[in-house]
Structures are given as structure tokens and as C-alpha cells.
Write a structure and sequence with these properties.
26% strand; alpha+beta; five-stranded antiparallel beta sheet; 40% helix; Dna Ligase, domain 1; single chain
Length: 180
């Protein structure tokens, strides 16, 4: 290699081919935001369909943030309407990647839109101002229902990790066998 490339470049190429690299490893910074979205196949007026889609986006965003070890300090909801108009609003929140917290903020944002008969074409939910989840202080909670939901969320994350990311979601129907 030294004969072909020269002394310095040849030695460098040979070392790298052997896996020798004296440069320090610098961890890659994760992006400061994460977004998930859904585009409706047709204009949607049904509020129940929109809420179900928003709940699905909350689950996807929470899972994405927890996998990356991050928590969002702000949530942005963007609604796209027929005719090309958009509505966007951001709300600051306590740093969290839990679906329970994200759902509450997302529903507050959706209620703030005060939609009556809007023909929607898409929804985007974005977690912004992300921080490392290790920096989030965990408070002692006396709310047994919330603690149960968080424990269920952890169990669902473990199931998803074992069986694939799209195997269990908010609208998944799990076939049950008849007991004999």
C-alpha cells in the first residue's frame, strides 16, 4: 500500500483496513425533534376517525422517543385541510416520552383547533425541544391508575421489541383461541 499510495497514505489505508483508528469516538447527536404523520386517503370529516388517527400518532411518537432515549418538552400539532391550508400550534409541556402525557397534550391541541366541519387531509404530530430522557426527573406519584398505565406501556414496549415494531398498536386485534 505504501508503494502505491505513498508512505503516509499507504500506512493509513493499511491501518484502517485492519480496524486501527486512533481517532476518538464522538457520539452522534440525536435530532432536536421527531415527527410522525398520517395522510388521509380522502377528505375526512369524521371526528372519531381523526381522534383515532391522532391516538395512533401519539403511540408512534412515544415509542420513537423512548427507543431513542429522549423526552419532548414541546408538542406541535399540524393539521392539513382540503384546499391546502394548514393549522399549527405548539404547546410546552413537562419533558416526557410517555403516551399518557403526549396524548393529553395532543388532545388539548386538537381541542384548541375548534374544528366544526373541516375536511382534513393530514395530521402531523411533532415532539420538539428534545432532551435526553436521563435528564428528566421522575416524580413520586400517588396516582395508582397512572402508575398502572406506565407499567403497561413498559410491557408493551418489551412486547414490541420481541415481536417487531408494528405487531402491537392501539388498533391491533389479537385473535384469541377458544379455551378447551
Amino acid at each position: 500500500m505504501q508503494r502505491l499510495l505513498g508512505k503516509k497514505a499507504g500506512r493509513l489505508a493499511a491501518d484502517r483496513a485492519r480496524g486501527i483508528d486512533p481517532r476518538p469516538v464522538v457520539p452522534r447527536n440525536l435530532p432536536a425533534s421527531a415527527a410522525v404523520g398520517h395522510r388521509f386517503t380522502s377528505h375526512t370529516l369524521d371526528g372519531a376517525v381523526v381522534r383515532a388517527t391522532l391516538l395512533d400518532l401519539v403511540v408512534q411518537l412515544g415509542l420513537h422517543l423512548r427507543r431513542r432515549g429522549q423526552a419532548a418538552r414541546a408538542i406541535t400539532l399540524t393539521l392539513r385541510f382540503a384546499g391546502g391550508t394548514t393549522w399549527e400550534k405548539t404547546r410546552l409541556t413537562e419533558p416526557s416520552a410517555h403516551e399518557d402525557d403526549l396524548r393529553t397534550v395532543a388532545y388539548q391541541l386538537m381541542d384548541a383547533a375548534a374544528l366544526q366541519r373541516a375536511r382534513m387531509t393530514g395530521i402531523v404530530l411533532k415532539g420538539e425541544d428534545l432532551i435526553d430522557a436521563g435528564q428528566v426527573a421522575e416524580q413520586i406519584s400517588l396516582d395508582a391508575a397512572r402508575e398502572s398505565r406506565l407499567a403497561a406501556e413498559q410491557a408493551m414496549d418489551r412486547i414490541r421489541k420481541k415481536s417487531g415494531p408494528d405487531s402491537i398498536g392501539p388498533a391491533t386485534v389479537v385473535p384469541l383461541r377458544r379455551a378447551s
